[in-house]
Each structure stands twice: as structure tokens, then as C-alpha cells.
Amino acid sequence: MPFLVLNGLTKRFGEHTAVENLSLGVEQGEFLALLGPSGCGKTTTLQMIAGFVTPSSGAITLAGKDLLAVKPAKRGLGIVFQSYALFPHMTAAENVAFGLEMQGIARSEKARRVAETLDLVGLGAFADRYPRRMSGGQQQRVALARALVIQPSILLLDEPLSNLDAKLREEMQIELRQIQRNVGTTTILVTHDQSEAMALSDRIAVMCQGRIEQIAPPHEAYERPATPFVASFLGKTNVLEATVEDGRVILGDGRWPAPGGVASRVRVTVRPEKVAFANGGAPSLAGNVATRIFQGNHWLYQIDTAHGRVTVIRQNSGETVPREGESVGLTWRSEDMSVRPDGASP
How far apart are CA 197 and CA 33, in angstroms? Predict the structure, then answer.
């Protein structure tokens, strides 16, 4: 049985259903991301685990025990909020020690664990510094240390990096993942940032309108999205209407092998980085270069075709690339496209 189990979890606020019949299991030591747009129910799910929100129905068990029967303060969970919620009148060490004081830990043990945890997050030299004299990244580390020092059974992260600038957020993603691996604490991250979820987690639970659309490792969810919503939410994707005849997907003059059992009218989805410019011989879709944008390590193209506009991302390898206004043929491997019956739910 998984370490943490959510079974049929539902939360209603009046007539609004924030989370509906949500079930998932989290293994001990796993890093799971709850990913989705605002209002999809991911934060409500985290708050039900923490005990801040009471489920309308369903069950939560931790190591086989009923977590809903335990008061929030007694659940032994570490929580890092988006705002960090540090005490401004306390030093870094005092902030980290706060949870241990609530547990009645002896002074010598408390001092040792605070020092070890500050060292773990790279703030051993900042123990006596107040939050106002610390950068956003340093404050985030203090909040993380405060959550880890109590040795929680589960670490809950609620958009912890959203207040950092892009460069610092990327650096903290690397540090956070390394810390989690070193400590081995079961971790659940709530985020709306797709790249953050894919960079940090062992598995992603993609949520939409209170339900889980797909649970999978990041690479699998990206390469093999279970629904059109997952495909569109996890990065850019092209959606094209096509037909199937004699076991072939037909797009313009292009012919691709069709998965068995698909309908005659289909929708094809393919990632921009999977699309290449045809050199002849391969199935291709004719188009015209509408826009070409240089973005450093890659080129971003918008190609007008008879089946709609196609986005293409090609790495900057130094080779000659098509210019705006040129006619091109687009191709991709059949295994890089998903084919669904036209009219399938978005």
C-alpha cells in the first residue's frame, strides 16, 4: 500500500465543487507535483492533507492510519507557503527552531538540529540574520529549513518558488530537488508552473476542474499525454484536423501510419520540437513560413498550412534555416504524434 493514500476525496464549497472524487497514492520518499491552472483544486487538495480544510467526503490515510482523525498540529507535516510566513522579529535560527519549541524538544537537541538543518539548506553562516536582511532565495531556504527540522513524514510545498525571479527560481529548483533527494522526505508540490513540475517531480498529477486528468512521470506525461488538456497544458502543442484512409493519417500530401481503430475524422497533436522541415521522401505537410523568430538556442516558426497554423521549434545548429515567406514541407515521426477521434473531449 502507498505511504499516503487519498481515496475518493471531494470538497464542496456551497454549490461549487473544488475537488471531485480524487484518488491517488504517494510512495514513501516520492516527490509528487499537483499541477494545474488556477482554480483546478490543487491547493484545496493540499489543504485537506494538511488539515486546514475538511473534506466533504472521502478518506486520507498515512502509513495506514486515518489522517482525518488527527488534528492538523499533530499530523507531523512540514509546510512551506508561497509567502514563506517567517516571523520578522526572529532570526533565521529562531524561525527554524519554532516548530521544535512547539514539540518541547530539549535545548541541546534543538540547537543541534537547527544547526544541521541550516547547513543542509546552505545557511549555516546566516543563523543570526533577520528575514529583512535576507534575499528572497535565502528567506525561502529558511522556510524550507523550518519545515524540515521537525523531520516531517510529508513535506507540503504550496507554490514555494513563485515569488522568486526567473534565474533564482531555476537555481532553487535544482537546490530543492537535491535537498529532497538527500533527506528522502515524501514531498507534495502544488504548482501551476509546468517546467517547475517537470524539473522537480518523480510523478506529475495534472489536474483540471477538480479532477486528475493524468498521473505519470514527467517525460511520459509530456510525450504521451492522456487527454488533449494535458497535451495543451504541458507545453506548446499543435492540433490539426485530419482524416484516416486505408490505415493512413492524411494531412495535405503527407501520409502517416494510423493507430488501429481510430475514426475516419481525427485530431492529430504533435509537439513543436518534434516537427522538422522535410528534405523529400518523408511524408510532409506543405506550408508557408509566416513568422521566424530567433531565440538564442533555437528558432521559433509559425507555418501557415491548409490545416491551420503549425508552430515549429528547431535548435540553432548553425545550419541554414528557411526565411519568412518561403514554402516548406513539414514532417514528423508517426510515433511523435497522438491521434484521437474528432470531437474527443478537450
Answer: 6
> What are the tens digits of pLDDT across the range 124-140?
999 999 999 999 889 98
Quick one: DSSP state of residue 306?
Answer: T
What does the CA dihedral 273, 279, 283, 286 come to, rounded to 10 degrees? 80
Q: How far apart, in Å, are the Cα atoms of 187 and each of 2, 78, 119, 121, 166?
A: 13, 9, 20, 16, 23
**Which of 133-137, 279-283, 299-303, 339-343 tops mean pLDDT?**
299-303
How many distinct structural domains can be found in the chain?
2
Instruction: Name the grid cell of 315.
Output: 535548435
Q: What is the pLDDT of residue 346?
A: 41
How far is C-alpha 54 from the chain's CA centre?
25
How far from 318 is each of 129, 293, 298, 304, 323, CA to CA, in Å? 49, 15, 10, 24, 14
pLDDT given for residue 263 in this prediction: 66
pTM of the model: 0.87
Residue 180 identity: Q
Boundary-marking domain end, from 232, 256, 286: 232
Sign of the Cα torsion 66, 69, 74, 77 reads positive
Task: Report the largest interatomic distance among the alpha carbons of the chain, rounded to a whole angstrom.
Answer: 77
Residue 330: what are its φ and ψ, rounded to 5°? -110, 140
Give the helix ranges, DSSP H, for 62-165: 92-102, 107-120, 136-148
User: Domain with 53 in it: what CATH number?
Assistant: 3.40.50.300
